[in-house]
Every structure is written in structure tokens, then in C-alpha cells.
Write a structure and sequence with these properties.
Elements: H1 25-68, H2 74-91, H3 94-113, H4 127-148, H5 151-168, H6 176-189, H7 196-208, H8 210-217, H9 221-239, H10 246-264, H11 273-290, H12 293-310, E1 311-312, E2 315-316, E3 318-322, H13 323-327, H14 335-338, E4 343-347, H15 350-361, H16 367-391, H17 400-418, H18 438-458
Antiparallel strand pairs: 1-2, 3-4
Helix pairs in contact: 1-2, 1-16, 1-17, 2-3, 2-4, 2-17, 3-4, 3-5, 4-5, 4-6, 6-7, 6-9, 8-9, 9-10, 9-11, 10-11, 10-18, 11-12, 11-15, 15-16, 15-17, 16-17
Length: about 475
């Protein structure tokens, strides 16, 4: 099934003033008054932007409320469920969590009945359709499980992932571990505790398929980043409980190092913008997992370089993305139109949504860069909020469904940052840094190197 090999992807400048004042008492009082007025103005601007962002998410919530009663297909319900998740994380309202639960209950029921979702062998003529329904349901249910810890949702995720493996063969990017690790990652960064049983499930699957997972990670840059992201999501969650499995952490560190090496060979180019966004996303997850200062240093430079391509002045530029990565959650896209080797040029809200999480995590250890990210993103949040309020979504150039989804993701992430919903560095359980035996790391590096060598040899030297 070659059509799924490359299916998916895959904060404000704070100025520090140092004053040495040698002035009269009257001048000093005047200065204090001016400083207080200036501070109030800044607070007013920030508060106004928060109000605008929340109002925009409430516009999206009204859209969900209006559609939820009439939509009964899995793709539509999954789309509305993801929107409800973003609204809830940003606003924290009970209405959105009810919408989230309603959509999840109906998707879980569809998994049980098998009427729309075929759990088991698919007829060849329905392969594209079933693949897309499975992926969209899993993307939504992983977010629902992150917030609600619902056993029915967990069971549905397992059934859907097993069905994918039965029809397409086991692959890390569509595996149970991929979706469950992402769910636990989201749960952890929002300050909730992951279940140890879920961590054991990930460890059991990846350990039993360790050789397959390792070989997969050496196939392409895309597969390398996917494997690194899965392991990083798992490690972030595991560190909040009792720590990751040592063999999996060794592989994560090896893949992290290989990704840093690959980055040295890459220049930021317009035609491969989407690759750089994927690299940044994977390295942010890896940094949150391991806290490697070298990774943070690389991210500082890479994010600055990509931001110069992403936005000029206050205008977000149109840049290329693989079609499937753009429309994978669009409930109106025809499945056969999605699995084509085409690119879509659009304005990107994925990049700022990703770097907001990093800004929150490093706020106490790298205030300057965190504030720089805030400054970069705040103006975009203002633009997006204004257009969502007036038109219902921000036009990214890929249709209203994609625009609404990316708008909700950005506004939700930004509000979570402002309201302190994301964990910061050092807020995990007070465990010591993970120290792995050098021999284990070395043997893992050798295995990865051999897998890469085998791949290059088979493909005649093509990386």
C-alpha cells in the first residue's frame, strides 16, 4: 500500500531596561507615575488580545453547537470533536467539554457497531475511505482520551489501530503507540497524570517490534522524525511517572543526535518549508523529553530562520505543504483526491502553534527567546482573532474547514500559554536526569547506523 508511506506529517519581545536614576524627588515621582501608566497600557493591550482570542474561540464553539446535532458521520464528528477540544483548552468552558464528550460517544458507538467504520478486513474499493475514517477518528479520540481518560475511547483507539495494522501492516506512524503516546503527551503537558497501564502498552508494543521500529526510523527523514516524535511523546509522559524504558530512551537520544547531524546539512528553503516545520516540531518534542541544551540552541536558530520565511512584516506568506498533511482532517475532502503527490500553497498557522509550546516550557530558563516567540506570535493571533470574529475562520488559502481548524489550534495554544496551562521546565516530578550506560547508547548508534547503511546500499546511495 504505497499510498500511505508518506501520508502525514508528518512568543512578544520583552525589553529589559536597567536604569540608574539620580534625580530629584519630584522627578522620581513623575517617573513612577509614568511607569505605572505604561504598565497599565501594556496590561490593557494584553487583556484586550486575550478577550479577542477567547471571543474567536466562542465563535468556533457556536459553529460546533450548530453542526453537532445534524452531523452523524465519523469524519464530521471527528472534525467537530477536535474543534471542541481546542475551544475547551483555550477557554475552559463546560459547554465545550459536553460537545467533546458527545462527539466521542458517537464515534465510539460507530467503532462498536462497525456500520460506518469497518474494524477488520476492508473491501479493496473502500480502502482509501476506511483509511481516512480510521485516521480522523484516531486523531480526535487521542485528544478526547488526553482530557477525559475515558476507557471506551481507549478501547476504540486500540480497535482502530489494530484494524489499520490488519489491513496495511504494522507501521509506527499509524500504530497504537503513535496515537496513545501523543494522547499521553498532551495529557502531561496540560498538567494531568498519565496512566501507567498506557505507558506499559506503549513499551510492550515498541519493545516487541523494536527491530521493525528501528529499521523504519532509518528509511527516510520523514520516518526518522516520526520515530523521534513517538519516542519523545512517550518519554515526556513516562518521566512524570517512573521514567522511560531504558532501551527506548537510548534510541530516542540516538535519533535526536542523528536529526541534529541532518540539520547541519540543510538550508532553509521555500520549497521545503514543510520539512523544516516537521523538523522543528520533532525537535521541540525531543527537547521537552530530554532537555538537551544543544537541541535548544539549534531550535533557537532554526526557528528564527524559518520565521523569516514564514512571515514578512506582518504578512503571513503562502508556502508549500503536501496535500494530505493539509486536508487529513477536512471532513469534505474526497479520499481519492487526498492520496496524490501534490502540494498546496497556503498561509501556515501550524508553525506558530508548535513554537508556542516551546515558549511556555522555557519561560523560566530562556526568558529572552521565550519573549521573542511571544512577540512573533502575538501579532498573528490578533490578525487571526479579527478574521475569525468577522468571518468565522482565518483564511489560510485551503478552504474554510482547514482554516477553522488551524485558527482554533493557534488561538487555543496561545491562550493556554497566556493562562499558564502548559507545564514549564522543571515542573515535572523531581526525578534526576536519565543517565544511560555508554555501552547501551553506543550499541544503539551502531544498530541505527547499520540500518541506514543497509537502506543506502539497497537504494544505490539515495538518502
Amino acid at each position: 500500500m504505497a499510498w500511505i508511506v508518506e501520508f502525514k506529517y508528518a512568543l512578544r519581545v520583552q525589553v529589559l531596561y536597567t536604569f540608574f536614576l539620580d534625580v530629584s524627588t519630584v522627578c522620581w515621582r513623575h517617573f513612577i507615575v509614568l511607569l505605572m501608566v505604561f504598565s497599565l497600557l501594556l496590561s490593557s493591550v494584553s487583556g484586550s488580545l486575550i478577550d479577542d482570542a477567547e471571543e474567536s474561540l466562542l465563535v468556533i464553539r457556536r459553529y460546533v453547537a450548530g453542526k453537532l446535532g445534524s452531523v452523524d458521520d465519523v469524519r464530521g464528528l471527528s472534525y467537530l470533536g477536535v474543534l471542541a477540544y481546542y475551544v475547551y483548552v483555550g477557554v475552559g468552558d463546560e459547554e465545550s467539554i459536553r460537545y467533546l464528550d458527545t462527539a466521542a460517544k458517537r464515534v465510539n458507538e460507530a467503532v462498536k457497531t462497525g456500520d460506518e467504520l469497518i474494524i477488520g478486513p476492508w473491501p479493496p474499493e473502500k480502502s482509501y475511505e476506511q483509511f481516512l475514517k480510521h485516521i480522523q477518528a484516531l486523531e480526535f479520540l487521542s485528544l478526547h482520551y488526553a482530557l477525559r481518560n475515558d476507557p471506551d475511547t481507549r478501547l476504540s483507539m486500540k480497535d482502530l489501530a489494530d484494524s489499520l495494522a490488519e489491513n496495511l501492516g504494522w507501521r509506527p506512524e499509524i500504530s497504537y503507540s503513535r496515537f496513545l503516546s501523543y494522547s499521553l503527551f498532551v495529557r502531561t503537558v496540560l498538567g494531568l497524570t498519565p496512566n501507567e497501564e498506557d505507558l506499559r502498552d506503549i513499551e510492550d508494543e515498541l519493545s516487541s517490534r523494536y527491530r521493525e521500529f528501528l529499521n523504519y526510523s532509518a528509511q527516510t527523514l520523514h520516518s526518522q522524525l516520526t520515530a523521534l516524535t513517538i519516542l519523545s511523546h512517550y518519554t515526556v509522559a513516562a518521566k512524570s511517572v517512573e521514567g522511560p524504558l531504558i532501551e527506548l530512551e537510548a534510541l530516542r537520544m540516538t535519533l535526536e543526535n542523528q536529526t541534529l547531524i541532518d540539520l547541519e546539512k540543510r538550508d532553509v528553503r521555500e520549497e521545503e518549508y514543510w520539512v523544516d516545520v516537521a523538523l522543528i516540531q520533532a525537535l521541540i518534542a525531543s527537547y521537552l523529553a530530554g532537555g538537551n541544551e544543544e537541541v535548544l540552541g539549534i531550535l533557537r536558530q532554526k526557528i528564527r530562520d524559518v520565521s523569516e520565511l514564514w512571515i514578512r512584516g506582518s504578512k503571513i506568506r503562502e508556502l508549500p505543504f503536501p496535500k494530505i498533511s493539509v486536508y487529513v482532517l477536512d471532513p469534505t475532502i474526497q479520499p481519492e483526491d487526498l492520496f496524490v503527490n501534490e502540494f498546496v500553497w497556503k498561509r501556515d498557522l501550524v508553525f506558530p502553534s508548535n513554537i508556542i509550546l516551546l515558549a511556555s516550557y522555557i519561560m523560566d530558563v530562556d526568558e529572552e527567546f521565550s519573549s521573542w516567540i511571544r512577540g512573533l506570535v502575538d501579532d498573528v493571533v490578533r490578525q487571526v482573532s479579527e478574521q475569525v470574529v468577522s468571518e468565522g475562520y482565518y483564511d489560510v488559502g485551503a478552504g474554510e474547514y482547514v482554516g477553522r481548524l488551524e485558527s482554533a489550534a493557534l488561538l487555543s495554544s496561545w491562550l493556554a500559554l497566556i493562562k499558564g496551562k502548559y507545564k514549564r521546565q522543571g515542573e515535572e516530578s523531581p526525578r534526576s536526569p536519565i543517565r544511560l550506560p555508554y555501552t547501551l547508547i553506543a550499541s544503539t548508534i551502531i544498530m541505527v547506523s547499520l540500518a541506514i547503511y543497509y537502506k543506502v546500499r539497497i537504494r544505490g546511495g539515495e538518502l
